Amino acid sequence: QAAKANGSSGRLPHVQVEGVDAGHAEVERRSAKMAAQLLAEVKALGAAKVRHGQYDHSGDKRRLLGLVAELDEYDFLRSAKEYGIVMRALAGQQLWREALAFLPTMLRRNVEPDVIVCNVAINACTRGDAWTASLAVLQSMERCAILPDEVTFNSLMGACGKGAEWSRALFLLTELHIQSLEFNTYTCNSAITACQQGSKWDHALSLLEELTRKLVLPDIITFNAVISSCGGNWELAMHLLLGMSKQALTPSVVSYGAAVKSCEEGSNWQAAFQILARMRGDRVAANAVVIGSTIAACGRGSEWRRSLLLLDELPHADGRKTRSDALIAHNAAIDACGKGMQWLQAMKQVDKMKQGNICPDLLTYSTVISACEKASKWEISLGLLANAHAISIHPDRIMYSAVMTACEKSREWSWALWLYADMVHRSHCPDAMACAAVVSACGAGREWSWALYILEEALRWQVALDLRACSAAISACVYPGLWAQAQQLLQTIRRLQLRPDAPACNAVISACESASCWREALTMGAGFVQDQLRPTLLTLGAVARSCGSASHWTPALTQLLEAQKNDLTPDTVLL
User: Fold this and answer.
1) What is the C-alpha separation between 336 and 412, in angstroms, rounded?
2) pLDDT value at position 9?
């Protein structure tokens, strides 16, 4: 009213507009300040994992997701740079799916992604071992007319490397050449690492040669990746290791470790020791990884004594990583003892591990039990299985199978059967090895009914049976003379597309002999041709005995002619 009286009706609305504008500006300033604070905290949380190496901080992940949700809810993300900060933080916490979800969000909010944001998304997929998703990002870039750069291709090749997709990595390298982007050491290393994951040493070596042709100097990462790709080609690995000096590069412990690993895969413990000696000469301290690979190489060469001596060179395990590496080395030494039939030494190594604060794992117990199984120490194997349960190590079917095999060798069919039942009770589906062990144990104990029952159960569960399991069931039919069941099992072998061998067919003939079924035995002997098998003296002897016991001397004498026809010298049994 006063305004109207003064004839200035337009001033008050003008003041109100200015107040509104000022209020909006203040809100904008506060929003910007809040957004900057949230982004700074997001950035810090994303970097915390990389800086401290914390791989299991669920609290950090929850806090980060909460901050990101807040930024999204209040529409604080308005530029590609801000989206990039959020996506990079999510990638740092292994939340690659959440990071990738922001690409379509940007498009919906009319924020154009740039090559930097797309590279962040690809890097997130690389960290999450999602190479297919990273290639999908590349396709999105093509649809949005975003030109990839060197970082794009390097990240993509890194993702393909983790997925052992070496061929795709090489295709991407070709695309990089087509687009006239820079081919540098880092790019080559990404492609070589992909070839390393696929064990394609020839392609990795070609890339190294291409790098040299382009007068681009390889670095230590280049050589480490090429050496790691050599697999069992230890001669090439050693050649590359020695060739590093020509490039004025000093091999690191990783370089030596990759070369020793190649010697392990090539079963050449002597070469592994040569590399170890060179390390000492170059004053490079061998870590648990290098020593573990050397021990494993010794194990493949049945040098269990050298394996145990190398354990004394293990550095003190004072952290999670070093304890894990030391555990691998000890397991390799135990495996070497098992291959050398030194079950007692294998047991002693478990005690040494406990004294050194190295906790045995599932592989440790499996390896020790395997060593005891080879020596037919079934009671000790049972004790180790019980010990594993006691310390909350859950035995798998491989461990159960090894204990059952030990029982089988000692003809402890009741224990083998109990272990089989316990394994099934603990929801472990039996495999061919377990079935063969328990069927063979029951057969040796003349418990043919159990043997046939276990095999029938395995067939019902669609276990991928092998010839050993079926042959063991046939052998169980010999003593009671169950020739019809034995013949049915032989047909089962053929139905499983397995090729019967001479021992399996001989067992069927022996079952016919036990049942005094000489005609069936004679037919089986003649049927060897069907399975493309040559009869053995055992075959001919079983047929001759079967015919002789029924006083049919003519077909019995025919077996002597069969022996001559197959270039077999008749033994005393056949005669």
Assistant:
1) 27
2) 44
Q: What is residue 217's DSSP assignment? A: P
Given this model, what pLDDT does residue 529 score?
A: 63
Cα within 13 Å of Cα(38), Cβ side: 24
Please choose, from the candidates 471, 392, 463, 394, the residue with its C-alpha nearest in 3D space to the C-alpha of residue 434: 463
DSSP 319: S
Kindly state the tokens that stand for 217.
């100097």
Which of 402, 409, 410 lies closest to 385 in space, CA to CA?
Answer: 402
Least Cα distance to 181 among 157, 208, 164 occurs for: 157
Phi, psi angle pair for 216, to nearest 5°: -100, 125
Decide: 71 and 35 in contact? Cβ < 8 Å: yes
Cα separation values, 77 from 66, 85, 307, 413, 429, Å: 15, 10, 59, 70, 52
Q: What is the rounded distance in angstroms from the CA atom of residue 321 to the CA atom of residue 318?
A: 9
Selection from 240, 245, 210 nearest residue 227 by Cα: 240
Question: Tell me, what's the pLDDT at 318?
Answer: 61
Q: What is the largest CA-CA distance in the chain?
A: 144
- Cβ atoms within 10 Å, residue 536: 17
Cα–Cα distance for residue pair 47/41, rounded to 1 Å? 10
The reported pLDDT for the residue numbered 212 is 79
Distance, in Å, from the CA atom of 468 to the CA atom of 560, rounded to the nearest integer, reads 30
3-state SS, 396-453, equals CHHHHHHHHHHHHHCCCHHHHHHHHHHHHHCCCCCCHHHHHHHHHHHHHCCCHHHHHH
How far apart are alpha carbons 112 and 108 in whole angstroms? 9
- The Cα angle at residue 118 between residues 112 and 122, in degrees rounded to 5: 160
Closest of 498, 497, 533 to residue 509, by C-alpha: 533
Going from the first residue of the chain to its last (575 residues), give the mean pLDDT of each consecutive group of 10, the final group possibly shorter.
Answer: 43 46 65 78 70 55 84 82 88 86 88 91 85 88 89 87 82 86 83 83 86 83 91 92 89 94 93 92 89 92 91 74 84 92 93 87 93 92 93 90 91 93 88 88 88 89 87 89 90 88 87 87 77 78 80 76 74 61
* pLDDT computed for residue 551 by the predictor: 75
Three-state SS annotation for 483-530: HHHHHHHHHHHHHCCCCCCHHHHHHHHHHHHHCCCHHHHHHHHHHHHH
- Under DSSP, the state recorded for 481 is T
**Are 177 and 183 in contact, with CB atoms under 8 Å apart?**
yes
